[in-house]
């Protein structure tokens, strides 16, 4: 009898996943979920984007999976992702934050917020990235200056093998520091290195399978040590930022803002003086937006650059061609953003790096803002949506060689650079990456200057074939740990 009751209970629970909507509201198809754990057994939690890509071949471009008890609608392929994010931007434009984020973020900042607060913070961050970041000639100079510091670090290794992760993170993070605080830090400043190292460790942890399990089954949280580590890291970074903010406050001059924090403090002050009590310019939003800019703006760009160098080592002929183009067009002077249009091959190599590296494979979870009927399927308001960027960047109907490093994807028959619509590493629509322009400027200057100054090779005794291109597990796809040699070009 107990067995029969158990079977009945399982049937009831399983059916409650898929039923519950009127017949005319046809929900997206998908694999049958098991009670409680949903489709977790079918998903590779380390690399869920791979399984989702496979499932899209079976269930089509709009399908449902259950991540434990949570229902997720997956959008696959260029046409579908574009239709949802661009043509139906409003309906698919909210953010779904997982539990670990909700615990520490509480809906503030840009990445994980919604509604008017998100709009205000996004607009303000964009304006300030333009003013203190990519918009002015000064920002190009900032990147060029930082690149010189990075080159000095690379040179110190004298062509011997080393891991590029830390210097790359420090250089890219310093660009965010200049924009946010108005100044850069030395690479041996412990205040700076701990901020960057903690940020990167947090990103790694948030994408780990154990934290994903915690998000789905919080009651097992207390057995998961990583949850506490995330808390410690975030608390330490907040504390350090509070110290930095209070130093900036002491020397604040409203007529001469040094960076994002100054501009925010001035805006906050002005609103307080005009007795505006409804403002989103509060301390929580300042803290979370700053943490967001570091989290989203460092690991992504630094990782892409490291993939770029790795692809160059794997493809030495392509590396040589980039250097030849740089030598013909730029010679030995400093590369500038202006040069980009005269460097089609280099530009194509950077685009192809971003396409194949696919560093944010499932974008960041979206959420429907209302009930939606999409490609004949009903999707309820508040449903989590994964725009599967992997399926766009590797879309077999868009790319001639989706799984190889093939810069010709971005070149016409005459070798001129061509834009490709399915190039979507920054996603698209309402939630498109806020730092896209800055990131593109950084990628171009850092990558081309490094290739101009160094030849990158595998360590002695390691063959090019031995270099592993399998990404590490994490929120963003990093190359597995490896060392490279940066041999100075004479
Ligand atoms: C969001 C990619 C660099 C700030 C995103 C998203 C992707 C992405 C895929 C999610 C979009 C969506 O949910 O549909 C990248 C890549 C980068 C990069 C590939 C570098 C190669 C940056 C930089 C910054 C930044 C340098 C800041 C300075 C943000 C922010 C969001 C975001 C704030 C959230 C936007 C919102 O929710 O409104 N990025 N990003 N990113 N990115 Fe980036």
Please state how the strands of the largest beta sheet are arranged side by side. Answer: 1-2-7-4-3
In the predicted model, the low-confidence regions spanning at least 5 consecutive residues are 7-21
Mean pLDDT: 91
- Let me know the number of strands: 9
Secondary-structure-derived class? alpha+beta
Instruction: Indicate the overall shape.
Output: globular
The CA-CA distance between the termini, in Å, is 82 Å
- The residue fraction in helices comes out at 40-55%
Chemical compounds bound to the protein: protoporphyrin IX containing FE
Strand percentage lies at 5-15%
Tell me the number of helical segments per DSSP (H or I, 4 or more residues long). 17
The largest sheet is: 5 strands, mixed
Q: Can you tell me about this structure?
A:
The protein has 490 residues and is α+β, with helices and mostly antiparallel strands. The protein is 51% helix and 7% strand. The chain has helices at residues 2-18, 48-59, 78-87, 99-105, 115-134, 137-156, 165-180, 190-206, 209-216, 225-250, 260-273, 283-297, 299-314, 316-329, 344-357, 389-393, 436-453; strands at residues 62-67, 70-75, 94-95, 366-367, 372-374, 377-379, 384-387, 454-457, 485-488. The strands form three sheets. It has a five-stranded mixed β-sheet. Strands 5-6 form a two-stranded antiparallel sheet. Strands 8-9 form a two-stranded antiparallel ribbon. A hairpin with a 2-residue loop joins strand 5 (372-374) and strand 6. The protein starts with a helix and ends with a strand. The model is unreliable at 7-21 (pLDDT under 50). The site of protoporphyrin IX containing FE (HEM) has 27 residues, from helix 5, helix 12, helix 13 and helix 17. One of its GO terms (biological process) is aflatoxin metabolic process.
């Amino acid at each position: 009898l107990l067995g029969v009751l158990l079977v009945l209970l399982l049937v009831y629970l399983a059916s409650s996943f898929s039923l519950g909507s009127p017949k005319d509201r046809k929900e997206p198809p998908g694999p049958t979920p098991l009670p409680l754990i949903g489709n977790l057994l079918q998903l590779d939690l380390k690399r869920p984007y791979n399984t989702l890509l496979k499932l899209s071949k079976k269930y089509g471009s709009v399908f449902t999976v259950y991540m434990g008890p949570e229902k997720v609608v997956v959008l696959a392929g260029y046409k579908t992702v574009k239709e949802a994010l661009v043509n139906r931007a409003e309906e698919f434009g909210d953010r779904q934050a997982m539990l670990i984020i909700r615990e520490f973020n509480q809906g503030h900042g840009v990445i994980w917020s919604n509604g008017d607060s998100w709009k205000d913070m996004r607009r303000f961050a964009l304006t300030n990235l333009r003013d203190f970041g990519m918009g002015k000639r000064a920002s190009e100079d900032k990147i060029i200056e930082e690149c010189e510091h990075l080159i000095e670090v690379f040179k110190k290794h004298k062509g011997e093998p080393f891991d590029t992760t830390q210097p790359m993170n420090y250089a890219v993070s310093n660009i965010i520091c200049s924009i946010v605080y108005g100044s850069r830090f030395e690479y041996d400043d412990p205040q700076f290195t701990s901020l960057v190292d903690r940020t990167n460790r947090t990103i790694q942890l948030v994408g780990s399978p154990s934290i994903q399990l915690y998000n789905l089954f919080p009651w097992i949280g207390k057995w998961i040590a990583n949850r506490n580590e995330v808390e410690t890291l975030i608390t330490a970074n907040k504390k350090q930022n509070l110290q930095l903010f209070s130093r900036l406050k002491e020397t604040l001059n409203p007529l001469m803002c040094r960076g994002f924090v100054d501009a925010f403090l001035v805006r906050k002050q002005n609103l307080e003086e005009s007795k505006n009590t409804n403002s989103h310019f509060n301390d929580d939003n300042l803290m979370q937006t700053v943490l967001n800019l570091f989290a989203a703006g460092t690991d992504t760009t630094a990782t892409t650059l490291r993939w770029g160098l790795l692809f160059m080592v794997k493809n030495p002929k392509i590396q040589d061609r980039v250097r030849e183009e740089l030598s013909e067009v730029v010679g030995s002077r400093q590369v500038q953003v202006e040069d980009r249009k005269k460097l089609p091959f280099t530009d194509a190599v950077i685009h192809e790096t971003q396409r194949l590296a696919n560093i944010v494979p499932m974008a960041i979870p979206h959420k429907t803002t209302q009930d939606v009927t999409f490609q004949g399927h009903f999707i309820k308001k508040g449903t989590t949506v994964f725009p599967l960027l992997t399926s766009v960047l590797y879309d077999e109907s868009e790319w001639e060689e989706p799984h190889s490093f093939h810069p010709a994807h971005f070149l016409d028959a005459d070798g001129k650079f061509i834009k490709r619509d399915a190039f979507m590493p920054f996603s698209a629509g309402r939630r498109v990456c806020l730092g896209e322009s800055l990131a593109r400027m950084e990628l171009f200057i850092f990558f081309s200057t490094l290739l101009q100054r160094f030849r990158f090779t595998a360590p002695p005794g390691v063959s090019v074939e031995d270099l592993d291109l399998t990404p590490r597990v994490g929120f963003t796809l990093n190359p597995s740990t490896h060392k490279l040699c940066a041999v100075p070009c004479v």
